[in-house]
Amino acid sequence: MSDLWQISEDTFDPQSQHHKETIFTIGNGYLATRGAFEEGYPDDRRGTFVHGVFDDVPIIFTELVNAPDWLPFIISLEDERFSLDTGTVEKFHRSLDLRTGVLTRIVHWKSPGGRRAEITFERFISLADQHTMLIRCQVVPKFDGEIEFRASLNGNTDTESIAHWHWIGQGTREETIYLHNRTRSTRIELASAMRFLVVAGKPLFDNFCNVENTPTRVIVMNAHPGEPIALEKYVSIVTSRDTPAVVNSAIEHVNNIADWHTALDLNTQGWAQEWARSDVVIEGDEESQTALRFNIFQLLIAAPRHDDRVSIGAKTLSGFGYRGHIFWDTEIFMLPMFTYTNPHIARNMLNYRYRNLTAARQNALLKGFEGARFPWESADTGEEVTPTWVPNQNDRTSLIRIWTGDIQIHISADIAYATYQYWKVTGDDDWFVEKGAEIILDTAKFWASRAEWNTEAGYYEYNNVIGPDEYHEHVDNNAFTNRMAQWNMQTALEVLDWLKSHAPARAIELINQLDLSAERLARWRHVIANIYLPAQQSGLIEQFDGYFNLKDIDLAAMEPRHKSIQSILGIEGANQTQVIKQPDVLILLYLLGEHYSAEDIKVNYDYYTPHTDHTYGSSLGPSIQSIMACRVGKPNDAYEHFIRAVRADLQDMRGNARDGIHAASAGGLWQAVVFGFAGLHITPEGWSANPSLPTHWKRLKFHFLHQGELQEVDIKRDE
Ligand code: IFM
Q1: Hey, how many other C-beta atoms are within 10 angstroms of the C-beta on 6?
Q2: DSSP SS3 for 471
Q3: Phi and psi at residue 166, to the nearest 5°
Q4: For 446-467, b where at least 16 C-beta lie within 10 A, e where not — what string?
Q5: Is the CB of 620 under 6 A from ligand 1?
Q6: Is any ligand 1 atom within 6 A of the Cβ of residue 618?
Q7: Domain that residue 236 falls in
């Protein structure tokens, strides 16, 4: 049986270089580094992203900055520089050990001049000290001569062509080299420090090259056939978000690394604890088992363990896509895994939203509303950072207007929903009283002010919105938005009652602070009772006003295709059909499942499933689709959708994994297993599981925390 904790490959394909850089990302929740090679490769997209280090950019407002590069480790056999694009690669093996986060690469290389060497790189980013990372390189030469090793810190990085870093200084303190940079606009300082040590073999020459913005240490070693040489590079990164004394702190962290083995042991212990909480065991399906661990790993390495001013972006810390911005992906897709397995991380991520309530209030005001309106795309300040216009890739003379920042307002209810779920699952009353309740109350205030009274029809509505299905813009009465808004207001009223009896002082404080007068609450009740919720007699919910009148094209008849329906028909073309990017109504039925009957769920599942662009639409869809297939008793369909999420990144299903991990899909995958196949269900009385395992699964086992108590679910199929 293969090791189901390894992601590995035995050939290097330059065509998939950027995809693999994403896949082999490692990190620790403070920062993460893409899997580019230490020695470089033409056109590589090297990237290290540190949570919270944003800087200004024209048009897209702000982006997560590519930090100074800590990887450079250059090897020359005599005067021939090792690189996979020259000479002959006689063996290649790369593997990521998900158990420990260690990335290993073995290359047997013959230089163009005929010199041979067996080169092994190992690296990890420590879970024990979040500021440190280590590289170990062993070279077994097959020739007599000299090998030069160069290790650098490189401040000349860019983020897709924008250079964000100013150079401030560099130097050495005893054997430790440091580099000090600052972002151009946000003026965040970042210090990196490095030690470069010989651990096997004898150096002939050792020098510090003080190249500006790339301090480098050069060590030349004697090479003899079969005699291993080993060097280790220890690096630390500290920013002024952590401490003002960045250089001293970076030097201290790197000097505190005792040696590779000690640091690795501490890191491994850290990972053992993470996996004790987070592992999900699937027996009978090796692909799904490894992929699930991979996806959990990717979320864990982006998870802010010690910082509640940041949250996880749509592409984690693994790529340049979406510029590090945070969407509803976080609360609806990623957060549940943390809420159930690592609540302190979930709390940090919700605190990020809580801290940004002031900006959310400002966002509401700017649009002429009350309460808190969270931005569709969020970064460091909580302001709206969705770009208003982006270049049209098909026509360089035009721009495309992006409306999501203006009207994809369901995110405020999504955040309120995640807040409430966190509270119910963890029982963290203290946090809820102090912070969570305020999020729910102030988003409710927004919804009440945003509701429009339709005099003719005699109901409230939300017009001109975008629901989760982004193929249709500027729609009225999107069912998801209307129902989630109603849920948000209803829940806010319940929360206020609960506060009055459990934390009366806080209730009074919030009533005064948010002006929750009797008149205002009466308005909430009126909106709740009179909001338009589109549903037919049969229980079929119209996704938005007029959806059923749109062109009903037969998606199945368009197979085989390799593009999304929007790419085939264009934005306007797709807008005029009933094809949807992700299962809008089904996501609603998933989130508020207890309010809908089994018949309602079935009727909507049957209608919307053939109308959804499952393979090339949104990567957020398949996991929820899978859960809903379990709910309607279609385990085979559930597995088919599940597998799309399993392969989203590992097999680059949409051809864009180079931009970073599809984090919502990763979180959705966990939910598909736990809430879909295991059928975990939490009620006020406790929890239950209602499994519907794929036929070839023999066992499904995982842990979760309910009200602070560790629970185990272990489902075995009878042989
Ligand atoms: O938030 C998603 C959205 O639902 C679909 N488009 C991509 C966004 C970021 O992942």
Answers
A1: 15
A2: coil
A3: -90, 145
A4: bbbbbbeeeeeeebbbbbebbb
A5: yes
A6: yes
A7: 6-275
Nearest Cα residue to 642 out of 679, 677, 601, 607: 677
Q: What is the pLDDT of residues 514-556, one digit of tens each?
A: 999 999 999 999 999 999 998 888 999 999 999 999 999 998 8
Cβ count near 573 (within 10 Å):
15
Instruction: Count other Cβ atoms within 10 Å, centred on residue 88.
Output: 11
Task: Please report whether residue 661 resides in a domain.
Answer: no
CA of 618 to the centre of ligand 1 (A): 7
Q: Domain total for the chain?
A: 1
Pairing state between β 203-211 and 214-223: antiparallel
* Residue 662 forms part of a structural domain: no
Which atom of ligand 1 is the closest one to the Cα of 468? 4
Per-residue model confidence as pLDDT tens digits over 446-498? 999 999 999 999 999 999 999 999 999 999 999 999 999 999 999 999 999 99
**Residue 327 Cβ contacting ligand 1 at under 6 Å:** yes
Q: Is 193 exposed, middle or buried (0-12, 13-18, 19+ CB in 10 A)?
A: buried
Is 471 a pocket residue for ligand 1 (Cβ < 6 Å)? no
Which residue's CA is the closest to the ligand 1 atom numbered 10? 314
Q: Tokens for 690?
A: 């209602």
* Token pair of 176 as six digits: 């430790």
Residues that are catalytic = 470
Instruction: Kindly state whether residue 558 falls inside one of the protein's structural domains.
Output: no
Q: Report the residue among 60, 327, 332 best suited for mutation to probe ligand 1: largest number of ligand atoms under 8 A from its CB.
A: 327
Q: Which helix or strand (DSSP H or E) is residue 494 part of?
A: helix 479-502
Angle at 197 between CA 194 and CA 201, to 5 degrees: 160
- Please report the atom of ligand 1 found closest to the CA of residue 663: 10
CATH number at residue 271: 2.70.98.40
